[in-house]
Design goal:
The complex is a heterodimer. Chain A is an all-alpha fold. Chain A is built from six helices and no strands. Classes of the chains: A mainly alpha, B mainly alpha.
Chain lengths: 188, 130
């Protein structure tokens, strides 16, 4: 049933939430992690807040990078749709990270006014895909390097959840490029 | 002719095959650098500062980059030794750094990374972005 055919907004919301449980699970993990720290009655570890803020900076950069790709006119459907979808994921990550930083008493970093992307090197769809794949590969490494540092295990789990999403982006982008999608059994 | 004990031959064979003294591999370092590219680029600042001109540079001194106070006050000058120490455990070496990365525990990987960074630092591409 389409959401537009549901007469009651309450029913529509329930249906939407029911169908979106998988999408929202990552959000729930991260927000609950923030609440868990506060509920424990101890101050949040400043290192945890810094880890989240560094990740937020990288997510904001990724959002801008995908915008550059989408605006480049180099991406054709369905690759363009893929890029917009992945950008949407990064927006969700960023929103969540910012909320959690705030919840833990920190100040979320803001997006930069300008990013120094090598736009002049992006001349084809493959160039854009390779650029995005490099960023996603880096993101996997960054989250992998951050997970063991968290003092709060729930935050580590939330970061691992985002890592999984970045790894899927990387694999799909490699597939779109004609590369072996999953080049090895382990990531580093 | 005097016969050599088999275990002596075994130890010699292991010693000859041991890769411990292998020179750092900048090509492998280039592959490992993909990890750094989460936040860094050679020629331009990203979430982390650019790497061109790294060797001999005082930590926290790229004027276009907003460093943590911890990095600015670290008094580190980047060279093979300081990079090796930092890359092993960034937050242990500079607590409070925004480089919230657990580090590269494998010494040979760090050596390869440093060899790569040193090699690219000498290129014309890097010379224009110090």
């Amino acid at each position: 049933m389409s959401f537009f055919q549901i007469p009651s907004p309450v029913v529509a919301r329930r249906l939407f939430l029911g169908q979106s449980s998988l999408v929202l699970s990552g959000a729930a993990v991260a927000l609950l992690a923030g609440e868990g720290v506060l509920a424990a009655g101890v101050a949040a570890d400043p290192k945890d807040v810094q880890i989240l803020n560094t990740a937020l900076g990288a997510e904001l950069e990724a959002i801008a990078a995908y915008q550059l790709g989408a605006d480049s006119k180099l991406l054709q459907k369905p690759v363009l749709d893929l890029a917009v979808t992945f950008q949407g994921h990064h927006k969700e990550h960023a929103e969540l990270l910012a909320k959690t930083v705030e919840k833990l008493g920190g100040k979320p970093v803001a997006a930069k006014a300008n990013y120094n992307f090598p736009a002049e090197q992006l001349k084809t769809q493959a160039d854009v895909l390779r650029f995005a794949a490099k960023l996603e590969q880096g993101a996997v490494s960054a989250y992998l390097g951050a997970v063991p540092l968290f003092g709060n295990r729930d935050l580590a789990r939330a970061a691992a959840s985002i890592l999984g999403d970045e790894a899927m982006h990387w694999a799909v982008l490699r597939q779109a490029l004609g590369d072996v999608p999953v080049p090895s059994a382990f990531v580093a | 002719m005097r016969r050599r004990h088999p275990w002596v031959a075994g130890v010699l064979a292991l010693w000859i095959a041991a890769p411990a003294s292998a020179a750092p591999d900048a090509v492998r370092g280039a592959q490992l650098y993909a990890r750094c590219q989460a936040c860094h680029a050679l020629a331009y600042d990203r979430v982390g500062p650019h790497h061109c001109g790294l060797f001999g540079r005082m930590a926290g001194s790229v004027p276009t980059f907003a460093y943590s106070a911890a990095m600015k006050n670290s008094k580190i000058v980047w060279d093979d030794k300081t990079l090796d120490r930092f890359l092993a455990q960034p937050l242990k070496v500079v607590p409070g750094s925004t480089m919230t990365y657990d580090g590269v525990p494998d010494a040979s990987e760090r050596a390869d990374l440093i060899a790569y960074l040193k090699r690219v630092d000498r290129t014309a591409e890097c010379a224009a972005h110090r």
